[in-house]
Amino acid sequence: MKKERIFIVEDDVIAQEVLKDFIEEFGYEVVGVTGDPQVALSAIELKRPDLVVLDINLRSAKLNGIDIASKIDVPFIYLTANSDKFTLKEAAQTAYVDFVLKPIDSERLKVAISLALQKQSATVEEPKEACLVLKNSNTLIRTPYKQILFIKSLGNYIEVHEKMGRKLIRKTLKEVEELLPEEHFLKTHRSYVVNKEYIEKVSASSIVLSGVKIPVSRSYKDMVRQALDVA
After folding, report:
1. Known InterPro entries for this protein (predicted)?
2. Spatial CA neighbour of 120 closest among 152, 95, 140
């Protein structure tokens, strides 16, 4: 069964470790931890977690947790050491699912996360299409996994080959690999990652998908055979 994915925004190092340990003990996957608001916003957009655990009082001159909350479109619960009226009033303007006060009680956190995920599951009318989300200059580019045939490395750029064309994006293949689900994608060469769904033919030195021949290098040959269960 797939684990729900949770992202933590907390700038206290000790609190980061405590939260991560608690959440993993609860059986969820922690897909990121940061105390930097800008890093948090970018990572949440790219990783698309099921839930964000968000500290309100970040030590940032520019953005606090409430500012982050107003800019994201995934469910979140707040953490705060302040229960004053001003903080609560500001937080009430955002669509938070729950509030957990510090110091963190593990059982209270567990209940808050469980209820938040249940609520999210109940309100989702239809599943979102799984996408590769990449930032290119100041633009976020979303490409559904099922539209991707293969991705080719061109040094500091990648070429994303799709059913209906291709895109050139300033990212390294290594950066993009980390965002691709292993159950759908396979690396065949240091310069190529392919979508398993479209593989038509496999040989010792190449793979053919949608009529395109992709090389399989020696260093990836055994990995490819194992992944595709080819003798």
Report:
1. CheY-like_superfamily, LytR-like, LytTR_DNA-bd_dom, Sig_transdc_resp-reg_receiver
2. 95
CATH code of the domain in which 135 resides:
2.40.50.1020
User: Is 66 in contact with 94 (CB distance < 8 Å)?
Assistant: yes
Kindly state whether residues 107 and 136 are assigned to the same domain: no
Last residue of a domain, one of 123, 148, 181: 123
Collapsing DSSP states into helix, strand and coil, what is residue 170? coil
Q: Is the pTM of this model over 0.70?
A: no
Burial of 231 (C-beta count, 10 Å sphere; 0-12/13-18/19+): exposed
**CB contact at 8 A, 207 and 216:** yes
Q: Which domain range does residue 64 map to?
A: 5-123
Domain count within the chain: 2
Tokens at 105, concatenated: 């009680």
Which structure tokens are listed for 75? 């469910």
CB neighbour class for 45 (10 Å; exposed up to 12, middle 13-18, buried from 19): middle
Res 43 pLDDT > 60: yes
